Amino acid sequence: MPKRVAVEIERSLRERLASGEWASTGRLPTERRLAAHYGVARNTLRKAIEGLVREGKIFRHVGRGIFVNREPSPIEQIFHVLRDVSPADLLAVRQIVEPQAAALAASHASRAQIEAIAEAHRMGCESGEIALFEQWDAEFHQRIFAATRNELLFAIHRLLSLIRQQNAWIDLKRESFGEEQRRNYCRSHARILEALRRRDDVAAEREMRLHLEETRQALFGRH
Amino acid sequence: MPKRVAVEIERSLRERLASGEWASTGRLPTERRLAAHYGVARNTLRKAIEGLVREGKIFRHVGRGIFVNREPSPIEQIFHVLRDVSPADLLAVRQIVEPQAAALAASHASRAQIEAIAEAHRMGCESGEIALFEQWDAEFHQRIFAATRNELLFAIHRLLSLIRQQNAWIDLKRESFGEEQRRNYCRSHARILEALRRRDDVAAEREMRLHLEETRQALFGRH
Amino acid sequence: MPKRVAVEIERSLRERLASGEWASTGRLPTERRLAAHYGVARNTLRKAIEGLVREGKIFRHVGRGIFVNREPSPIEQIFHVLRDVSPADLLAVRQIVEPQAAALAASHASRAQIEAIAEAHRMGCESGEIALFEQWDAEFHQRIFAATRNELLFAIHRLLSLIRQQNAWIDLKRESFGEEQRRNYCRSHARILEALRRRDDVAAEREMRLHLEETRQALFGRH
Amino acid sequence: MPKRVAVEIERSLRERLASGEWASTGRLPTERRLAAHYGVARNTLRKAIEGLVREGKIFRHVGRGIFVNREPSPIEQIFHVLRDVSPADLLAVRQIVEPQAAALAASHASRAQIEAIAEAHRMGCESGEIALFEQWDAEFHQRIFAATRNELLFAIHRLLSLIRQQNAWIDLKRESFGEEQRRNYCRSHARILEALRRRDDVAAEREMRLHLEETRQALFGRH
DNA sequence: GTGGTCTAGACCACG
DNA sequence: GTGGTCTAGACCACG
């Protein structure tokens, strides 16, 4: 391989890295050893390494050596994205998922699950403080997802709830949440519940969609 | 109340643990240091620790020390659930999310993004091997989610893809994926792409829904 | 400058490039001459150049030399972006700009300009073919911008029109534009015109906003 | 019809010109080659060309050849208008666009984008020199537009910035920009940023509107 | 003759 | 002893 030696070595290093050859110690041999191993000058070896460094697959410490950069697990990567999501994106996803969850709940919920949803509705409407109302509001939506009997859908909803918890600002505007708006929410919940009781999936979907539209306007006005 | 000393220390350790005092290093001081700190014998200190060990909040390695058992983050817990989700649940979620993602892509994609989707379509149809086809198939769907310009939606799709990768059996039936079915998929993709090009969100949503219905039948037959 | 010689040279080259020293011929001296000029080895000189190449400020041709890469003018850059804009982004901008343009027109238009707007309205409502209707529709909006007497605002509207022309797909869905929807548009135009005639800027803004909301729903449905 | 030969050739050249046959190189063949191509004398060929030269579609350089006179694109024409826009028109457009951009940013910005805006604010307030302050001021507004995630809106803002750069006199009065006014700007920026952090779109829009009103008074006094 | 690649050595700051 | 930088030379493919 006289041509493009550095490229060949880079490919080789990439493979050895992926194979986990250096995973146990977390470090690569020194530049000098690697150069000797491949029978090239140190400069060439360094060129071969450059790309891996730029991609963050390895990193170098002067005087210490070259280290493998443990890749963040896919879940860590996703988690990182989730922490930085905009309110608009979050609401858009809710508008996609929640109406259809309501429809699924209408056809899959047990009687007990519907009663649990009804309880969350009643507690929310009766609660005096805003904080308590919000808690029961969250519970209302959560129980609808539980009633879909789709564990994945339920997990996704828990994920969305988590984002809302970690980004307090998302619901911040609700602090200016008036008594009137609260009564509106209560009425919307009542209509969703009504549809679920009737096992009317079309109506459940529609009412949930309208409720989220109402939420959107409370949060973003006319945008 | 000399006998209650251990209980007091346990309470103290519990608080310090919860406060995150040892979260950074992930380890507690040695038993000897802790005993000295509280001014008690090592035996007493060990009694105070026992409960925490039983609850799994800390664990001991002989000769190494006492370590904090970092609780799995809520997201890790959620992810744990995701690991054994049923194929039916997964498909149901896809049927909820993907058609609406296609609709969003129709209105939010840049021209370049639509061309990227077209490329994935073309490569998929042209690829000879099944493995290659599946790769471009996944890419096709992924690029549609990217074109929605909703980072959260995109992250959720990556999550679903991850589940499919880690539960290879979910798509098991696809191994019996015939040439005819592949041509059908190709045609479906073409229709979705066509709708995206026309920026027709209603058609994009419909074609994606039909495509997933086709997938459902390939996986589960007609029920 | 014994330390980081390459960095120093890069800085120098960057300055000379920006000063236009090589703009007339469009090419730099050879690597060998540059290295001699700075009194360094060719390798070092190459390292100094690398960054400029990556940024696209210069490019190299084997056997020919190093060339200056003429930077696209800001207007070319903007134009490039405009060609790749999504329908959603375009509509959002219209929703920002047009209602306020209508309000400005209400207070700044001459009587003749309002009559010109009225003419576009009348011609649109009367026109039999869709193509003709669309032309007069565009004219209606354009004349409102002209009536704001703000040349910049008018220019921006022409820019938006240009984008729509160059991206035929943006209005493609209007081909499925029914007779009923057309009558709705006609009624909306009438209400906007009415407000302009009354010199009621608040009403003009509101009616234009409602009209664009109507357009949004025609294009994107419920997204 | 031998006399009409020139007319025929002119028609042919016109077509070939419109077809873009010579658009890539920007130049036509030499007169001699064209004459040979059409099988006519150079005199006839020159006659055929005359009209095109008079219309400015092509132009001749003695000793160099015949060149296509690329017509300015519609966007270049629009840009030409923009070059001498009045300060009042520019400010009016900013007053239309920027408050709504701020509102959009409140709902669409990622956390990282809001931090970038905060950085521009902080750097502006801390900077000693006026020139530096103005640079960070521009950056503050630019980053808000970036945070809207609307590429068209961002491009329009870049266009407005370009106009301001090329018409330095538009902001001329700012040279008499006192320390007090600067502190006011800083406070306004702080209030806008505060609203963005709270994700309060209504407040963000209002604070931006007040800030631009403040700018208007600094430029034009109270009229 | 040009840029692209490589060699075999050297000294440096840092750990 | 490690990675970071640099030298002075060489041969290559390509124009």
What does this structure look like?
Chains A, B, C, D: Keywords: DNA-binding, Transcription, Transcription regulation. The structure is a homotetramer of 223-residue chains. By secondary structure, chain A is mainly alpha-helical. In chain A, 70% of the residues lie in helices and 4% in strands. Chain A folds into two domains: 5-68, Winged helix-like DNA-binding domain superfamily/Winged helix DNA-binding domain (Arc Repressor Mutant, subunit A, Orthogonal Bundle); 76-220, Four Helix Bundle (Hemerythrin (Met), subunit A) (Up-down Bundle), CATH 1.20.120.530. In chain A, strands 1-2 form a two-stranded antiparallel ribbon. At the A-B interface, helix 4, helix 5 and helix 8 of A face helix 4, helix 5 and helix 8 of B. The structure holds a DNA duplex (15 and 15 nucleotides).
